[in-house]
């Protein structure tokens, strides 16, 4: 493993470039990722070990030799069993507008991306094709580190090759019927309710009464599907929104209160525990940062 290519985990799961971003992770970070969706394609390549993944209500097992392709808007998260452990993996994010921009040049090769949801999420190429895909991902990591005047042209060419190989696999694989988890739709209603009402004073008891579910059942099933208990997720959601507001220029106190924290000291402790910096430190960093230009430098952090 090339330690120089290891990225700091992007906890926000947001793209800052308008084309692609690639990360090589070696850490236990997936254990802390809750159910989420984003507006870009995600290609997930596990280099060793075994990992379960929940995508759109169904579970699949990811091992070296296959890859996971997640379409924009699909709810997903790692589903890790056992104690935390380091996972060696490469993650590629692709802006759908960038992918669509290649349709004019390669319409037949890329049209399969329109049906990624219908054919399942696990990509299982033959051994030779898998090696080609892995080499292309490693070439992208190399250009990310090199970052010279030629790199923007090279990584677009490399990604184009990778997309063509993926589309070839997607076009010829058999249809795989997805079987959503029995409790998934019920818990997703709770999840969506929390996302819409995190600023209010909501609790596990409130959720249990509102959705006519036993408190223990709600807590157990929510944790199994989302990755956190309802109380933990409410706090995480509030912190994520406060983080965004501060990055956008909101005052620290206003951000905390707007996101449901009635006590600043509790907000401060929780924020520092999750993000490793005080809210005021993040505000100072946000003031110094300039917007990234299109095609600008690669980013490893939030």
Describe this structure in words.
- With 302 residues, this protein is of the alpha+beta class.
- The chain has two domains: 3-172, Regulatory protein AraC (Jelly Rolls); 184-288, Arc Repressor Mutant, subunit A.
- Helix content is 44%, strand content 14%.
- The protein has eleven helices and eight strands.
- The strands form two sheets. The chain has a five-stranded antiparallel beta sheet.
- Helix 8 (230-247) crosses helix 10 (264-275).
- It starts with 19 loop residues before the first strand and ends in a 14-residue tail after the last helix.
The appropriate CATH architecture of the largest domain is Sandwich
H/E topology pattern: EEEEEEEHHEHHHHHHHHH
The separation of the N and C termini measures 23 Å
Please give the radius of gyration in angstroms: 20 Å
Strand content: 5-15%
Q: Number of DSSP helices? A: 11
What's the name of the CATH homologous superfamily of the largest domain?
A: Regulatory protein AraC
Helical percent range? Answer: 40-55%
Unreliable stretches covering 5 or more consecutive residues: 290-302
| CATH class wording of the largest domain | Mainly Beta
Global structural class = alpha+beta
CATH third-level topology of the largest domain: Jelly Rolls
Overall 3D shape:
globular
Global mean pLDDT: 84
What topology, given as strand order, has the largest sheet?
1-7-2-5-8
Count of discrete domains: 2
